[in-house]
């Protein structure tokens, strides 16, 4: 078993309910092995102008393959109404939008990997100050 660290974020609709729903779905899909969780905090949008986000970090014990975890996260996002595909500007930079839920894999034990679909540790851990704040709360 490895420790899986997930970042949850939402800035649309009932943000508190969105976090709670995503956590309930993750608990079910990951067999209820949540080890700990940060408080939910409000943060400013990073990289685009939008309403504030609610964010939290949850840590699970898992033996699943990282690709399986990614599929679970994406399926939960779709089930909750997120249907946006990544969008990029002409210069190749990512264009961000408000979202009902975002679930990112931050770390998975000491695993380091990079594929077109998944990079662990998450490449934006250091560029998003609120992530450090949340990780320090664990």
Question: Could you outline the blueprint of secondary structure elements for this entry?
Answer:
Blueprint lengths: L1 E9 L4 H15 L4 E4 L3 E3 L9 E10 L3 H14 L7 E2 L5 E2 L6 E7 L4 E2 L4 E2 L8 H9 L1
Antiparallel strand pairs: 1-4, 1-7, 2-4, 3-4, 5-6, 8-9
Helix pairs in contact: 1-2
CATH class: Alpha Beta
Largest sheet: 5 strands, antiparallel
**CATH fold assignment:** Alpha-Beta Plaits
**Helical content (DSSP H or I, runs of 4+):** 25-40%
Instruction: State the secondary-structure class.
Output: alpha+beta
Radius of gyration: 14 Å
Number of strands: 9
Topology pattern, helix = H, strand = E: EHEEEHEEEEEH
The outline comes out as globular
Number of domains: 1
Distance between the termini: 19 Å
What's this, in brief?
With 138 residues, the chain is an alpha+beta fold. 28% of the residues lie in helices and 30% in strands. A hairpin with a 4-residue loop joins strand 8 (113-114) and strand 9 (119-120).
Q: How would you explain this protein's 3D organization?
A:
The structure is a single chain. The protein is an alpha+beta fold. The protein has one domain: Alpha-Beta Plaits (2-Layer Sandwich), CATH 3.30.70. The protein is built from 3 helices and 9 strands, in the order βαβββαβββββα. Strands 1, 2, 3, 4 and 7 form a 5-stranded antiparallel sheet that branches. A hairpin with a 4-residue loop joins strand 8 (113-114) and strand 9 (119-120). Helix 1 packs across helix 2. It is globular and about 40 Å long. It starts with a strand and ends with a helix. The model has no long low-confidence stretch (mean pLDDT 95).
């Amino acid at each position: 078993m490895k420790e899986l660290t997930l970042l949850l974020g939402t800035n649309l609709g009932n943000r508190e309910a969105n976090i709670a729903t995503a956590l309930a779905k993750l608990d079910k899909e990951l067999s209820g092995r949540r080890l700990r969780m940060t408080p939910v905090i409000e943060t400013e949008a990073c990289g685009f102008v939008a309403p504030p986000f609610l964010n939290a970090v949850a840590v699970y014990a898992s033996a699943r393959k990282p690709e399986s975890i990614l599929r679970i996260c994406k399926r939960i996002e779709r089930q909750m109404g997120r249907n946006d595909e990544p969008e990029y500007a002409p210069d190749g930079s990512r264009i961000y939008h408000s979202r009902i839920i975002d679930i990112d894999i931050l770390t998975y034990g000491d695993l380091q990997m990079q594929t077109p679909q998944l990079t662990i540790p998450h490449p934006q851990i250091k560029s998003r100050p609120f992530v450090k704040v949340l990780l320090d709360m664990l």
